[in-house]
């Protein structure tokens, strides 16, 4: 399956997220993205740093596609952010970084499960 197919089918196709992108784990290369989901290089740099320093991303929040989200979870594999009833789930695998946004109409746990399952699958196949 192509990286774009993972975004289109495994993430957005579920209806649990409305925007998503996959980057290399350093955040320096875009592998696939949904239309008009523009995560900036600086945002990616801060996200990658957040996996190394969870305290910093928890105190400053996480920025994705120009929007600041309050960090509700941060560890070495996942960062979750929330703004109102919508939010973002960022999952790091060995080689990839999944960034997904869910709308106010989706339960956070449902969106989280979708992104985490894809992350676990990618880790299982060596990514």
Automatic annotation (TrEMBL):
<dbReference type="InterPro" id="IPR048278">
    <property type="entry name" value="PFN"/>
</dbReference>
<dbReference type="GO" id="GO:0003785">
    <property type="term" value="F:actin monomer binding"/>
</dbReference>
<dbReference type="InterPro" id="IPR005455">
    <property type="entry name" value="PFN_euk"/>
</dbReference>
<dbReference type="GO" id="GO:0005856">
    <property type="term" value="C:cytoskeleton"/>
</dbReference>
<keyword id="KW-0206">Cytoskeleton</keyword>
<keyword id="KW-0963">Cytoplasm</keyword>
<dbReference type="GO" id="GO:0005938">
    <property type="term" value="C:cell cortex"/>
</dbReference>
<comment type="subunit">
    <text>Occurs in many kinds of cells as a complex with monomeric actin in a 1:1 ratio.</text>
</comment>
<dbReference type="InterPro" id="IPR036140">
    <property type="entry name" value="PFN_sf"/>
</dbReference>
<keyword id="KW-0009">Actin-binding</keyword>
<dbReference type="Pfam" id="PF00235">
    <property type="entry name" value="Profilin"/>
</dbReference>
<comment type="similarity">
    <text>Belongs to the profilin family.</text>
</comment>
<comment type="function">
    <text>Binds to actin and affects the structure of the cytoskeleton. At high concentrations, profilin prevents the polymerization of actin, whereas it enhances it at low concentrations.</text>
</comment>
<dbReference type="GO" id="GO:1903475">
    <property type="term" value="P:mitotic actomyosin contractile ring assembly"/>
</dbReference>
<dbReference type="InterPro" id="IPR027310">
    <property type="entry name" value="Profilin_CS"/>
</dbReference>
<protein>
    <recommendedName>
        <fullName>Profilin</fullName>
    </recommendedName>
</protein>
């Amino acid at each position: 399956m192509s990286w774009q197919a993972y975004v289109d089918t495994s993430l957005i196709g579920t209806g649990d997220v409305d925007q998503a992108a996959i980057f290399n784990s350093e955040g320096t290369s875009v592998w696939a993205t949904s239309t008009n989901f523009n995560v900036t290089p600086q945002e990616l740099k801060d996200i990658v740093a957040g996996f190394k320093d969870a305290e910093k991303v928890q105190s400053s929040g996480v920025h994705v596609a120009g929007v600041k989200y309050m960090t509700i979870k941060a560890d070495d594999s996942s960062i979750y952010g929330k703004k109102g009833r919508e939010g973002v789930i960022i999952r790091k695998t060995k080689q990839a970084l999944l960034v997904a946004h869910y709308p106010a109409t989706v339960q956070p746990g449902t969106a989280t499960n979708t992104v985490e399952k894809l992350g676990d699958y990618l880790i299982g196949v060596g990514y």
